[in-house]
């Protein structure tokens, strides 16, 4: 479910649990992405498990050394829904 909040902007909830908000999603996704990639130092292949909103994919794409990204999402409907309705997703997802 997607709904608008006057403070957080667009909010995505799955099964009644808030997953991400438009205002602060970057904080979570940047930490989940950049810290491990920079700690590794030479990651060329990345596997994203989950991440149907595309935000982690967006962040991984910012690393020029990454040559291949595989994203696995258990619910293809989440990817389709987010790609069609959620503003934070990765263009072209």
From TrEMBL:
<dbReference type="InterPro" id="IPR030374">
    <property type="entry name" value="PABS"/>
</dbReference>
<feature type="domain" description="PABS">
    <location>
        <begin position="1"/>
        <end position="93"/>
    </location>
</feature>
<comment type="similarity">
    <text>Belongs to the spermidine/spermine synthase family.</text>
</comment>
<dbReference type="InterPro" id="IPR029063">
    <property type="entry name" value="SAM-dependent_MTases_sf"/>
</dbReference>
<dbReference type="InterPro" id="IPR030373">
    <property type="entry name" value="PABS_CS"/>
</dbReference>
<dbReference type="GO" id="GO:0008295">
    <property type="term" value="P:spermidine biosynthetic process"/>
</dbReference>
<protein>
    <submittedName>
        <fullName>Spermidine synthase</fullName>
        <ecNumber>2.5.1.16</ecNumber>
    </submittedName>
</protein>
<keyword id="KW-0808">Transferase</keyword>
<dbReference type="InterPro" id="IPR001045">
    <property type="entry name" value="Spermi_synthase"/>
</dbReference>
<dbReference type="InterPro" id="IPR037163">
    <property type="entry name" value="Spermidine_synt_N_sf"/>
</dbReference>
<keyword id="KW-0620">Polyamine biosynthesis</keyword>
<dbReference type="GO" id="GO:0005829">
    <property type="term" value="C:cytosol"/>
</dbReference>
<keyword id="KW-0745">Spermidine biosynthesis</keyword>
<dbReference type="GO" id="GO:0004766">
    <property type="term" value="F:spermidine synthase activity"/>
</dbReference>
<dbReference type="InterPro" id="IPR035246">
    <property type="entry name" value="Spermidine_synt_N"/>
</dbReference>
<dbReference type="Pfam" id="PF17284">
    <property type="entry name" value="Spermine_synt_N"/>
</dbReference>
<dbReference type="Pfam" id="PF01564">
    <property type="entry name" value="Spermine_synth"/>
</dbReference>
